[in-house]
Write a structure and sequence with these properties.
Chains A, B: It comes from Candidatus Uhrbacteria bacterium CG10_big_fil_rev_8_21_14_0_10_48_11. Chains A, B: One of its GO terms (biological process) is putrescine biosynthetic process from arginine. Chains A, B: GO terms for molecular function: acyltransferase activity; N-carbamoylputrescine amidase activity. Chains A, B: Keywords: Acyltransferase, Hydrolase, Transferase. Two copies of one chain form a homodimer. The first copy, chain A, has helices spanning about 30-45, 80-90, 140-145, 170-180, 200-220, 270-280, 280-285, and strands at about 15-20, 50, 95-100, 110-115, 120-125, 155, 160-165, 185-190, 195, 225-230, 230-235, 235-240, 245, 250-255, 260-270, 290. With about 290 residues, chain A is an alpha/beta fold. Chain A has one domain (about 5-275): Nitrilase/N-carbamoyl-D-aminoacid amidohydrolase. In chain A, strand 7, helix 4 (about 170-180) and strand 8 form a beta-alpha-beta unit. In chain A, helix 1 (about 30-45) packs parallel to helix 2 and helix 4 (about 170-180) runs parallel beside helix 5. The longest helix of chain A has 22 residues, at about 200-220. The relative contact order of chain A is 0.17. Chains A and B meet through helix 4, strand 9, helix 5 and strand 16 of A and strand 1, helix 4, strand 10, helix 5 and strand 17 of B. Strand 16 (about 290) of chain A pairs antiparallel with strand 17 of chain B, so a sheet runs across the interface.
Chain lengths: ~290, ~290
């Protein structure tokens, strides 16, 4: 086959995405206040959809097994979702993040929310792929059950978005499921880095792989991919930062610092999606189906 | 989550792979002779598995709709597979390529073969994803039916390999299916390039995407990926060359020229696969199943 000549360029249809790359402090109230200020600042600059890192409200407690951390979980709707929904409503933006959910079925989940500009919970996605580190450096499986409801795609401000969470980003099936459901932008709130005692070469290879595989989801599905990571040290971990946005060619169109907190405001031209779905019709042409187990 | 500290390095288990990046001349007999010489040369240098580009036997005829080209198809087993099987046997190597198959069901397929060192057809895979260019620069759907049998993984010299073909490389499900079937190395005989009249920027973006998505298959499945492409001009097309091998981190460990015919001999340490399947157990942890439609 040949690379396709691109169809005649269609009219641009842009949306401004805000990425809040942050480190999380000990105090949840402080993290919520910081996140709120940064959301408001991005909204003032024109962001329409703003994404926070995974479990931004607390330090990354999954590095230790401690039953006391279950007290950090909250119902959804609950105190934090109420505050975030109110911020979304006041600032006329969509907010995407993940919270530690205490569900009514007595299970605990790592749950992404899409909070609409009208102040409602527009979508709830429970992390499906829960990492269970063979080296016991972190143990998410101790805290979280796997979501069983599959991916969720929801329309916000005329744009179809799908939130997933961190380890999900290593699984092409999740991205495919989201895109088959209509997603134009996939968001991955994330908390990923390296064990500080790891050899540097391994860390570099792993960091490269993390970017490559998400860029590939963008290519395979003709979508934009937004990864919003933590940054800085937290117990054994050094988070990678480098939050980024990939366009449907897998090109990184914006990337944050590897060491500092940073807000990114990124212009995504969604007309590229329709154009590429004509030129590279992978979604239509695929000969496999993907189903949640 | 955190990038994992790698398990203690296990004993290396290496295999030498040979990539024959070639341009195809008008005369099939000439192409077969050239391929044979290059296979023998790579075998003498120690290659155990040698891969040719997609449909290496002929020019890339799919750029034109012409019923006379159906005469290029042959049964499998047939004249070309016999010659290649004999070369494999005499040189104690495995050969992977694709041929234009005229099947007994009166359909035509783009079919990959794995020819064993004992001179047998060890596996036959019929290309599932057939590109159908919206701009009519090439029209594979005019010539080939889609394979309906799914991916094939086969053991050669103690190594599990799975052949797919060209456009299949844009579909993560194929790689997943192959890996779930046990593949350690996925081979993509390929004929990809760009329309010579395309803007250079688009070509660069598409070429980048082509490499990124295959590197991602290696990451998602903890396997090696081998892409063997044509090179040079052929009618409207300029093939990209840049045949490459990706390790399970998505790192390109060898890459050929973008303009010249070239043989690559690449050492792959398969112990990395077992190591990464412990550290990054994506295959085990996935929450979706992939099935051919």
């Amino acid at each position: 086959m040949a690379a396709r000549e691109r169809s005649k360029k269609v009219k641009a249809r842009t949306v401004l995405i805000g990425l809040v790359q942050m480190r999380s402090r000990e105090n949840p109230a402080e993290n919520l206040t910081i996140a709120a200020h940064r959301i408001v600042a991005l909204a003032k600059r024109g962001a329409k959809i703003i994404c926070l890192p995974e479990l931004f409200l607390t330090p990354y407690f999954c590095q230790r097994r401690d039953k006391h951390f279950f007290a950090l979980a909250e119902p959804i709707p609950g105190p934090t979702s109420h505050v975030l929904a109110d911020i979304a409503r006041r600032n006329k933006v969509t907010i995407i993040t993940s919270l530690f959910e205490r569900a009514r079925n007595n299970k605990f989940y790592n749950t992404a929310l899409v909070l609409s500009p009208s102040g409602k919970i527009n979508a709830r996605y429970r992390k499906m792929h829960i990492p269970d580190d063979p080296h016991n450096y972190y143990d998410e499986a101790y805290y979280f059950s796997s979501g069983t409801q599959g991916t969720v795609t929801v329309r916000v401000g005329g744009i179809e978005v799908s939130p997933m969470i961190c380890w999900d980003q290593w699984f092409p099936e999740g991205a495919r499921s989201a895109a088959a459901g209509g997603a134009q932008i996939i968001f991955y709130p994330t908390a990923i880095g390296w064990q500080r005692e790891d050899p540097r070469g391994v860390n570099k290879a792993e960091h490269g792989a993390w970017q490559t595989i998400q860029r590939a989801h963008a290519i395979a599905n003709n979508v934009f991919v937004v990864a919003v990571n933590r940054v800085g040290k937290d117990d054994h971990l050094q988070f990678w930062g480098t939050s980024f946005v990939s366009d449907p060619y897998g090109a990184v169109i914006a990337k944050a610092s590897s060491t500092k907190e940073e807000d990114l405001l990124v212009n995504c031209d969604l007309s590229l999606i329709a154009q590429m779905r004509r030129d590279w019709p992978f979604l239509k042409a695929r000969r496999f189906s993907v189903r949640k187990q």
